[in-house]
Amino acid sequence: MPLTWKPRRVLIGSMFVLAGGVVWWLTSGHSPAYPDELTLYSIDGPTWSLEQPSTGGEQLNGFPVLGKVEVTDERQRQEIVDAIDSAIKNANGGKTCFVPRHAIRAVTDGNVVVTVICFECGNYNLYEAQELVRSSHGISPEAQPLLDKVLTDAGVTLAPRDY
What is the dihedral of CA 52, 56, 59, 65, to 10 degrees? Predict the structure, then answer.
């Protein structure tokens, strides 16, 4: 029995909503599960932003790495992911500076996502397989104290702040 016009419209509309949701999930960096691996980085955004030459040290997506910590405790990984998700949900837009000082490398089912964050202006970049997939004006500074604490507790140097 063929579908009438209304149910067909509802079915097609539902397919677009589902497809849109899948595209958002794939490009947003959000996933229903917590990452299998999570590394938190302190990066030298101020140096990168001034386009000074690299000192030859470790880099993450083109940003000089000051230090990093592998977060092996599952509860702490969840706390970090939840804090970042909340900071994105509570964002008020951003400015245009982009002087990132934090980055998170998350691995879920072999897929690597790197999020580079500038809490100063409230922007972040999302990378998958070294390619920028999203640049967003929308992360609040509420997650910064937790990220700073995890880094400093591990003895990692934080990038200097002008704000």
Answer: -80
pTM of the model: 0.75
Max distance between CA atoms of the chain, in angstroms, equals: 70
Could you tell me which residues are beta bridge partners of residue 67? 42
Tens-digit pLDDT profile for residues 81-139:
999 999 999 988 767 788 899 999 999 999 999 999 999 889 999 999 888 898 887 89
Q: Among 2, 28, 19, which residue's Cα sits nearest to residue 135?
A: 28
Per-residue HEC secondary structure of 82-134 comes to HHHHHHHHCCCCCCCCCCCCEEEEEEECCEEEEEEEECCCCEEEEEECCEEEE
d(C-alpha 39, C-alpha 25), whole Å:
21
| Three-state SS at 77 | helix
Pick from 74, 109, 56, 134: nearest CA to 117? 134
Phi first, then psi: give them for residue 29, nearest 5 degrees: 85, -5
